Amino acid sequence: MDIQANIKAVLSELPAGVRLVAVSKFHPNEAIEAAYAAGQRIFGESKVQELTEKHLALPKDIEWHFIGHLQTNKVKYIAPYIAMIHAVDSFRLLAEINRQAAKVNRVIPCLLEIHIAAEESKYGFTFDGCRSMLREGDWKELENVSVCGVMGMATNTDNEEQIKKEFESLRHFFDELKSEYFLHDDRFKEISMGMSHDYPLAVKAGCTLVRVGSKIFGDRNY
Ligand SMILES: *Cc1c(COP(=O)(O)O)cnc(C)c1O
């Protein structure tokens, strides 16, 4: 695996304004160090224990993004340093992130995970679920989180038309939320979508963050 060459290849396909989250989950520190040497600073992880170990061992200017499902009882371990939490899918989780962020005097950037795929999943808000959470308004009192946008995963399929439709649905939902709730909040600007097999489609649909793992680091054994 030539990690540096892979990073450059992915970056060359990203227009200005789209940032790369290099998804390093299940890969060793050496792999992250190789990407770091190529200039990559944003890394995505999906397990708290693994992230904690990597955060301790690796350079302090790495921007760690938590991209997986986060249990409320584990928020406290990452609150002191996490740069962004991508998959917030309940008000309860958002409130706990706020509580832990307040303890360490931080404001933690969060994305709302929206279920856009045709596949069944326990995770992610439905469009309507997200609308009612925002309409209820309690989130506005949470001063130690900033809601910075939305995140989604397309169906795992070769059908590009379907993937394109799903990404576009997230893009439109972002626009809706922006105009209804965040018009004057410059922090609400992120659309996190696109993985190794579909990020070019996500870029076309207007994402601002792509989360690419295996295309950079090779296959994971899990
Ligand atoms: C693992 C993972 C990715 C990266 O997947 P690849 O197919 O390896 O690029 C992106 N997003 C989430 C939420 C993930 O869990």
Index terms:
222 residues, alpha/beta, TIM Barrel, eight-stranded parallel beta sheet, 9 helices, binds pyridoxal-5'-phosphate
Mean pLDDT: 97
Helix fraction, binned, reads 40-55%
Q: Please report which band the strand proportion falls in: under 5%, 5-15%, 15-25%, 25-35%, 35-45% or over 45%.
A: 15-25%
Q: Assign the CATH superfamily.
A: Alanine racemase
| Attached small molecules | pyridoxal-5'-phosphate
CATH class: Alpha Beta
List low-confidence stretches: none
Structural class: alpha/beta
The fold-level CATH name is TIM Barrel
Biggest β-sheet: count, sense, barrel? 8 strands, parallel
Give the name of the CATH architecture.
Alpha-Beta Barrel
Give the N-to-C terminal Cα separation. 18 Å
SS field, number of helical segments: 9
Count all strands and give the number. 8
Please give the domain count.
Answer: 1
Order of helices and strands: HEHEHEHEHEHEHEHEH
How does this model look, in words?
The chain has 222 residues and is α/β, with parallel strands linked by helices. It has one domain (3-217): Alanine racemase (TIM Barrel). It contains 9 helices and 8 strands. It has helices at 3-12, 29-37, 48-57, 75-78, 91-103, 127-136, 160-181, 199-205, 214-217; strands at residues 19-23, 42-45, 63-66, 84-88, 108-114, 145-152, 190-192, 209-212. It has an 8-stranded parallel β-sheet with strand order 7-6-5-4-3-2-1-8. Strand 3 (63-66), helix 4 and strand 4 form a beta-alpha-beta unit. The mean pLDDT is 97. Bound molecules: pyridoxal-5'-phosphate. Residues 23, 25, 46, 67-68, 153, 195-196, 211-215 line the site of pyridoxal-5'-phosphate.
